[in-house]
């Protein structure tokens, strides 16, 4: 009886967040997160416009033009791993601050690059910051109640869509008059805004609980409750989650999902090195190995397809007069065709976000993700043959919507797979594998299309998407509506 009374006076972070709901506190975090998201997208999307200008100014080859894009993603590979391990080791708050600092300074300095080599070096440093940016979405997710976590993360993804449109409009306005250097300088400005406010954000209470800092976590939860005009549950905060069984999921998998510590560093005196080692080893536990490998495949395919679609849009709009088989409808004598088509396909991300928001908390993560991947595959398939420009852009629009929806689901699902103490490590390494796809995509897509192998470029993207769609059916865990601790 004593143990029952003691349990009744305890609550978890999920209990607290469910009680205080999604209110003013989370709304302010969402605005902050959106500013960082805008900056990240602008740094990424401008690569569609900067590459051709760099090629024209410095006379670099087509492969070197693609390298301007790929070197950013090389940096993100390193940044994803380091950012994930660092934020699990030193905290989410510090991770957010460091990524803002690295990306803002290096992004601004890119505008003053005196030569091609310097630009490549600085874009690599930008990639380091971009690679670690997943700590923002994980940090935000750890403040959101479980009931509609997917829908709110889909709302966060709308900022990505807004920023892709902003960079297309900005490039359209700036590039013809001021050139690519001004575009690089202007797109780095949102990061300085994020840098200023990074010092004010709170640490994740889930992270604090996983490190045994219960009093600090309680203070933050009380602050959230006060800002939302709600009250915390009665009792004392505990880091131990409730083991809630799911008839459709193996009990050992459920326990691992719900445990914040998983036997990891709940002792404040444990060394950071030991914590990082245990966090990495946890990814290869019996219950997480399959999910980790499947997530790697899906991330690789989605990153490859996303940037493949963007670059395919750019190349089809520019056209290649050396390809006799390509009709004149794909040849635009002016750059306005490029800006217009990129802008139109960027708008596709809004219906993609909406579709994901409608599905992710209703039909579940796995079905939503697999369905949209296979739909994207189907929309791209007809592009293996040369189509009229209007039809080609329509298909690219639909494919872009589906792949954006996939990323929305992945933003929710990837952190939910892992326990708190190794969450950023798992997501960071998965993003690292995905960024390998980002590195390969420009080299493969640009090279194949410029050498008149459009069919082969589409085939590679579709093959990867099909394999990823199959992988979604093999994930052992559905996390819809579940506590992530």
Description:
This protein has 485 residues and is mainly alpha-helical. The chain is built from 22 helices and 2 strands. The protein is globular, with a radius of gyration of 23 Å. It is a multi-pass membrane protein.
Average pLDDT confidence is 77
In what order do the strands lie side by side in the largest sheet?
A: 1-2
Helix-and-strand structural type: mainly alpha
Number of DSSP strand runs? 2
Gross morphology:
globular
Low-confidence stretches are 1-7, 243-272, 324-334
Content of β-strand:
under 5%
State the helicity in percent bands: over 70%
H/E series: HEHHHHHHHHHHHHEHHHHHHHHH
Number of helices: 22
The main pleated sheet reads as:
2 strands, parallel
Taking the alpha carbons of the first and last residues, their distance comes to 26 Å
Rounded to the nearest angstrom, the radius of gyration is 23 Å
Pfam family, one: Sugar_tr
Domain Major facilitator superfamily (MFS) profile: 29-480
Subcellular location: Membrane
Keywords: Membrane, Transmembrane, Transmembrane helix, Transport
């Amino acid at each position: 009886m004593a143990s029952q009374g003691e349990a009744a006076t305890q609550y978890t972070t999920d209990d607290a967040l469910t009680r205080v709901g999604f209110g003013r506190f989370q709304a302010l975090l969402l605005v902050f997160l959106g500013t960082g998201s805008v900056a990240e997208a602008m740094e990424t999307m401008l690569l569609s416009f900067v590459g051709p200008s760099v090629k024209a100014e410095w006379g670099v080859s087509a492969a070197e033009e693609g390298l301007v894009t790929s070197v950013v993603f090389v940096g993100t590979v390193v940044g994803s791993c380091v950012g994930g391990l660092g934020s699990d080791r030193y905290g989410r708050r510090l991770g957010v601050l460091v990524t803002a600092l690295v990306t803002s300074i290096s992004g601004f300095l890119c505008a003053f690059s005196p030569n091609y080599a310097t630009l490549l070096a600085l874009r690599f440093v930008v990639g380091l910051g971009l690679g670690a940016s997943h700590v923002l979405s994980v940090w935000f997710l750890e403040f959101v109640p479980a009931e509609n976590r997917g829908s709110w993360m889909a709302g966060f993804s709308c900022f990505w869509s807004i920023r892709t449109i902003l960079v297309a409009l900005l490039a359209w306005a700036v590039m013809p008059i001021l050139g690519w250097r001004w575009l690089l300088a202007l797109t780095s400005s949102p990061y300085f805004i994020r840098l200023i406010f990074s010092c004010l954000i709170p640490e994740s209470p889930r992270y604090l609980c996983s490190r045994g800092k219960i009093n600090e976590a309680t203070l933050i939860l009380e602050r959230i409750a006060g800002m939302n005009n709600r009250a915390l549950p009665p009792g004392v905060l505990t880091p131990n989650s409730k083991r809630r069984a799911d008839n459709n999921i193996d009990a050992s998998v459920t326990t691992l999902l719900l445990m914040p510590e998983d036997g990891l560093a709940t002792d404040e005196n444990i060394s950071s090195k030991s914590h990082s080692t245990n966090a990495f080893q946890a990814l290869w536990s019996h219950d997480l190995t399959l999910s980790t490998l499947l997530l790697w495949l899906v991330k690789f395919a989605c990153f490859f397809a996303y940037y493949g679609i963007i670059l395919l849009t750019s190349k089809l709009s520019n056209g290649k007069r050396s390809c006799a088989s390509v009709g004149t409808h794909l040849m635009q004598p002016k750059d306005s065709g490029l800006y217009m088509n990129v802008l139109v396909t960027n708008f596709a991300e809004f219906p993609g976000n909406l579709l994901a928001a409608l599905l992710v908390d209703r039909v579940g993560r796995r079905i939503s993700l697999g369905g949209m991947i296979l739909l994207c595959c189907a929309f791209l398939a007809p592009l293996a043959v040369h189509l009229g420009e209007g039809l080609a852009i329509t298909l690219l629009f639909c494919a872009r919507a589906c792949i954006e929806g996939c990323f929305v689901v992945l933003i929710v699902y990837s952190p939910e797979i892992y326990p708190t103490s190794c969450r950023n490590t798992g997501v960071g390494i998965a993003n690292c594998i995905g960024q390998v796809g980002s590195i390969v995509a420009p080299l493969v897509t640009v090279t194949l299309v410029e050498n008149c192998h459009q069919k082969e470029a589409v085939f590679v993207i579709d093959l990867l998407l099909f394999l990823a769609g199959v992988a979604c059916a093999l994930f052992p865990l559905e996390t819809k509506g579940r506590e992530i601790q």
